[in-house]
């Protein structure tokens, strides 16, 4: 479950803060039953050529470790040779922040248009309601030039829709062709896989942090019981009991998110488990996850969860100590707490085996938030749109990145004593909603950067290293199931309703098996077959 506030932090960097990203399903599919899987497997992905214009203080790694910057590079370099546009461009995107002032009254938006060479006219949807806006425009006679395709909002029939309405970009981006657009070439192969459907590349992917959910705790609260870190589930239970007194509570009430953490301790898979015979077993079908549900029910019965299930945001209560721990999106979400209390750096729980012996897992995220396809058009227009996406995907440390994320120096931002960009009052009014909308549809590879607290970058980097020791990736990431797209969210919601009832004591644990049958018969088994049919042979076995 991702709040609108945290989903604002999807890709690139949050203005003036470290970055966090969601755990989402991938959009790409590796193919369909009519031969798309084979075609996707044979496709030459865009040649990867990392941006070398800036050097991070802390190097990233292919494992998913993100590069860290202690300050913004002193001399931002230009990553494009000329403004990309000669004609106006229309685009549909979404913001999870407050929508920005409209283009006509937004100097930051106008300055971006000047840098681009023509107007970028955005239609900005909000949550909820984006799928409906997408469907309305899709059915119209006049598509915008660009339409962000969300990865987890239930848009069905993605393959046929792309073939019918959007531009195949394979010849412009596959292999060395992408090198004409250096900022797109700097996107990693793993990011591009999510934009491949039926063996074709359909758009520019939007990278985000590859890290998924984590449990974070206020160290001032947890020091009373020896700290947040634990070695067994029983130890965690005892600490939670000790921290709970009827006014203060150990855990936030987002039961499904907390259950996600417990599942890692019990060794539940990240989505699907790949068996020795290459068959798939879903999370809900494992004894590991069922044991985690039983454990969560035990914690609820001990009254250690904050009792109001409708609490919208636990962060203020975690900061003031009324709640000891909550689940956030990625270790870089420390910035949420810093924003409320500059003296507070929260701890991140490192997964452990529930009995001190079992192997824990850490569920990595997908590392992208969908892709942005183009409507069908002529070659000249395609290249103009690709040049635009190249500009808007400019890496951290470039002049284009500054323009997109901060605006113009002296107007929307100024430099602090360490030469880091800091938003002005005007920037805070004009920027966040616009930046959110731009980051949803285009982004560079993510970095760790918190200009106000450079030491946080080092701590977050060290936390990522620890999490990666237990990392598990969803084996179906980058593949596609039409059944999952159509009914997956509905099936998940129904199963989770039963889980919450079990944890809170409204239903017995026996209800789990009945809910699982409904999930399987309602589409779960069909999803399994569709995912298994396109599962790449390179995906390793993760279960027996």
UniProtKB/TrEMBL annotation:
<dbReference type="InterPro" id="IPR006311">
    <property type="entry name" value="TAT_signal"/>
</dbReference>
<protein>
    <submittedName>
        <fullName>Sugar ABC transporter substrate-binding protein</fullName>
    </submittedName>
</protein>
<keyword id="KW-0732">Signal</keyword>
<feature type="signal peptide">
    <location>
        <begin position="1"/>
        <end position="25"/>
    </location>
</feature>
């Amino acid at each position: 479950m991702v709040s609108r506030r945290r989903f604002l932090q999807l890709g690139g960097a949050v203005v003036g803060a470290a970055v966090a990203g969601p755990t989402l399903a991938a959009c790409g599919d590796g193919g369909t039953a009519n031969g798309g899987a084979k075609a996707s497997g044979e496709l030459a992905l865009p040649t990867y050529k990392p941006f070398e214009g800036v050097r991070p203080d802390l190097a990233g790694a292919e494992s998913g470790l993100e590069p860290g910057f202690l300050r913004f590079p002193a001399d931002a370099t230009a990553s494009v040779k000329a403004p990309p546009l000669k004609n106006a461009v229309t685009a549909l995107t979404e913001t999870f922040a407050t929508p920005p002032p409209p283009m006509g009254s937004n100097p930051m938006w106008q300055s971006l248009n000047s840098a681009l060479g023509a107007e970028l006219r955005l239609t900005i949807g909000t949550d909820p309601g984006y799928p409906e806006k997408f469907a309305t425009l899709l059915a119209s006679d006049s598509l915008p030039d660009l339409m962000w395709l969300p990865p987890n909002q239930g848009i069905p029939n993605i393959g046929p829709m792309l073939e019918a309405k959007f531009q195949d970009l394979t010849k412009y981006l596959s292999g060395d062709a992408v090198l004409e657009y250096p900022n797109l070439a700097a996107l990693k192969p793993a990011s591009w896989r999510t934009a491949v459907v039926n063996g074709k590349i359909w758009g520019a992917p939007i990278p985000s942090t590859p890290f998924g959910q984590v449990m974070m705790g206020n160290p001032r609260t947890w020091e009373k019981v020896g700290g947040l870190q634990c070695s067994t589930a029983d130890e965690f239970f005892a600490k939670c009991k000790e921290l709970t007194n009827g006014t203060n509570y150990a855990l936030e009430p987002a039961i499904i998110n907390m259950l996600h953490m417990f599942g890692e301790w019990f060794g539940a898979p990240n989505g699907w488990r790949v068996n020795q015979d290459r068959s798939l077993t879903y999370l809900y079908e494992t004894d590991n996850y069922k044991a985690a549900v039983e454990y969560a029910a035990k914690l609820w019965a001990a009254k250690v969860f904050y009792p109001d299930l409708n609490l919208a945001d636990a962060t203020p209560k975690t900061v003031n100590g009324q709640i000891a721990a909550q689940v956030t999106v990625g270790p870089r979400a420390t910035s949420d707490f810093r924003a409320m209390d500059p003296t507070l750096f929260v701890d991140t729980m490192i997964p452990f085996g529930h009995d001190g012996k079992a192997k824990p897992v850490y569920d990595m995220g997908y590392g992208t938030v969908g892709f942005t396809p183009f409507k069908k058009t002529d070659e000249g227009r395609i290249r103009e749109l690709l040049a635009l996406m190249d500009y808007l995907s400019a890496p951290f440390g470039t002049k284009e990145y500054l323009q997109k994320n901060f605006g113009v120096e002296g107007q929307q931002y100024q430099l602090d004593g360490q030469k880091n960009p800091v938003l002005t009052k005007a920037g805070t009014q004009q920027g966040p909603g616009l930046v959110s909308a731009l980051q949803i549809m285009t982004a560079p590879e993510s970095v760790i950067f918190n200009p106000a607290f450079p030491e946080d970058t080092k701590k977050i980097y060290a936390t990522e290293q620890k999490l990666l020791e237990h990392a598990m990736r969803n084996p179906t990431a980058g593949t596609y199931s039409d059944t999952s797209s159509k009914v997956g969210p509905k099936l998940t919601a129904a199963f989770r309703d039963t889980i919450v009832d079990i944890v809170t004591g409204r239903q017995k644990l026996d209800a789990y098996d009945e809910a699982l049958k409904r999930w399987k018969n309602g589409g779960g088994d069909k999803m399994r077959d569709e995912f298994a049919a396109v599962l790449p042979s390179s995906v390793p076995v993760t279960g027996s």
